[in-house]
Input
Amino acid sequence: MRPMTLSALFAQVQQLDGIGPKLAEKLARLVNNTVARSDPRVIDLLWHFPSGITDRRQQPRIAEAIEGTIATIKVRVASHAAPPRGNKKIPYRVTCADESGEMDLVFFRGQKNFMERLLPVGELRIASGRVEHYAGKLQMTHPDHVVSEEEFKTLELIEPVYPLMAGVSNKIMRRGITNAIELIPPLEEWQDEAWLKQNKWPSFEDALRMVHLPQDYDDLLPNAPARQRLAFDELLASQLALALMRNSEVTGTGRALLIKNNGLRDKIISKLPFKLTGSQEHALDEIYRDMASKNRMLRLLQGDVGSGKTVVALLAMAATVEAGAQAALMAPTEVLARQHFADFQEIAEQSGFSVALLTGREKGKTRLALLEALQKGEIDMLIGTHALFQKDVEFADLGLAVIDEQHRFGVQQRMALQAKGKNTDADVLVMTATPIPRTLLLTNYGDMESSQLTDKPAGRKPITTRVLPVERIDEVLHGLERALATGTQIYWVCPLVEESEHIDLAAADQRHAWLKRHFGEKVGLVHGQMKSDEKDAVMQDFTDGKLGLLVATTVIEVGVNVPNATIMVIEHAERFGLSQLHQLRGRVGRGDQQSSCILLYQGPLSKTGQSRLKVIRDSEDGFRIAEEDLRLRGGGELLGTRQSGLPGFGIAQLPEHGDLLSAARDDAELILLRDPTLSSPRGVALKTLLYLFERDAAAKLLRSG
Ligand code: ADP
Ligand code: MG
Output
């Protein structure tokens, strides 16, 4: 459990003065860019760093003030000019002067009484704000500050500026954060003192204060000492968490599967309508070697969409069956699980192994019968969704757990499945089509071994990608008409509108109706809100060719395989992440036909927006796209979903903090080597660090310590 000392930081923001439910709701959308929390907490405010400063250090005389800049000017108040009563268009003007010239302070809707108190004639005042010239005279409209000489002594000349939204002003943000800082409890230092000194880094609390009170532009940069320290804290927490998981998973308890050939794999391979590629063979060698070893396998199989990961999984699972154990394959969606099942079943009948499907839809008697057969060992391979790791699912002897599209699952979910091994945890193979750049591999997968499918199956033609403004949609429509006439199948993808699934759906619905008007009954619709049997029925009709054009929300992103579909239109392509576009596009180009992808965008596009679409247009290399995505986004959450137990990074930026990453990794290893249960004084402080960065799953592994 999270230590009590941290409870004030993890309390809801509404605990803070001046923050009510309405504001909390707005803050939820604003703070902590890695997750949209409906219930932002105090700590989420602390992680919301300023992105700029307002610099009031320029204190020119009136004649020297530079148009358009923020100036802080000492003046003597000369005269007031109130607008005629009831005239709201003419502002209230206060004329001031110094020895160099005159300037007007301008207030719309200025109240006479108030103005005379704020700026008494004959007195010295310091006004700070943006200056401009109006009718040849310097003026400051709505100064940010008007203070006396006495008050000026405490005026902040540099103010942090936060990323904001309507209804959350900088002032509100600052007040919330200032209050939040006061709630930081006294914490024992978890970093090595010598390392802190060497880097000239402040303590955790000081670092947070400094980040929120920048004294200069340099303080906003990733390499400012305070920001570096906090980034390192975050990286250390993540590396420590990974090392703890790794230790608990890989060491000691392993199981050596006997990799032997009793003909099953040969039979399967002989039934395949293709030859395995070199990298498929190579990946399988690595997998068999891991399975045969006494250590538990924890291997990541990376391969672009369409690179043929499924058959690698099938053969690894077959090897498990040959060794006398069972294997499981977990997929993130019902559609995908069913598709894998259908593929496997066909081969199973001809090759002589048994395969079953378990999803949320298998219920009652069917489910019970299936669970019994599984427990008796009558089922060799089990395919399914999240239903697989539920408590009452028991295997006779689970030897291998394969997790498809692993980024859709949390670490705990993976661990729950592998824990179903007989005496020890099962071997684990996780698969991903999201290519992971090396730096991120290190941050998110630690020492997981990895295999790559680098060559595309033979016979694939490159996909032609075009980027078009949505204004040209009619042209696209004519093209599709011709294609449909020749029997080509088409995907039409509508974007996910994040704020609301309803809007999302409405857009897809509308597009569906529109396309139906043009093409008639050949047009189908599939979206995430449909019941899974409805979804399956539509997908089946598309697979069978009964539908020619399938309008879809991003539910088709993952894994679906219809080789005859060779055209994809993606609407509002500018709203998608690059890796997501790449994944979507991978749904076409699966057969031997020439395929094409049309990216429709809604202009105007920003510079980055243009570069992003250009990257997708010009490249089909998932790794390159991922690297570019990382570069264009300047780090952040590349992997899309935040994983439970392994949250994304909020502070550490890649590549800017890349050097710190390897240091954090070495540090984590050294720490656990010396103090594996984190029970020394520094160890205890480090446990707090784990909770502070929400690596709770890893911290829980230390219960005994
Ligand atoms: P992904 O890696 O995206 O999961 P799949 O495993 O679904 O890719 O494979 C995509 C398609 O490629 C499938 O139709 C599969 O049968 C086919 N395939 C797999 N391996 C090969 C190969 N070596 N040669 C030709 N086609 C292959
Ligand atoms: Mg796949």
About this structure: Confidence is low (pLDDT under 50) at residues 634-647. The longest helix spans residues 225-250.
